[in-house]
Amino acid sequence: MTSGAYDVLSEHQIIRRQVDALQLGLEKRADGGRAWLDEVAPIVSDLTKGLLSHFKGEETIFFIDVKTRLPRHLATVERLIEQHRGLARDFETVASEVVGLDPSKSDAVEQFAALLTKALKQLRVHEEQENELMLSAYWQDLGESD
User: Fold this and answer.
1) Phi, psi at 4, each rounded to 5°
2) Helix (H, G, I), strand (E, B) or coil at 3
3) Which pTM was predicted?
4) Is 146 part of a structural domain of the chain?
């Protein structure tokens, strides 16, 4: 789905692939050692940076378009913008914690895994809500397919 030159749906697909990769990395932690952290760390970093850019794009292009053309979705847009703030904080925390994580400290590893798992779940739910907004606003309300 594009809103002008901004392709929010493609960004959602990239985010979904990164979330899936992180989920797989989390599953590998049972193998122990540092390998899973070395796999997860760059994805967390890329996702965190990408989310900040993605959120800005949504807020300055996609959400503005929806609010302007379909003001009935204002409350949904405002809720999603607030979620952006929380998700950005959560992923910045995850990105900073993964850097110094010592795989020999199982309590710290499990605490980090729980933090990442929670952040990924919240991001999945958030992205689903945005996809629902796109479907509702553009396909159902405006009858636009692209």
Assistant:
1) 70, -130
2) strand
3) 0.88
4) no
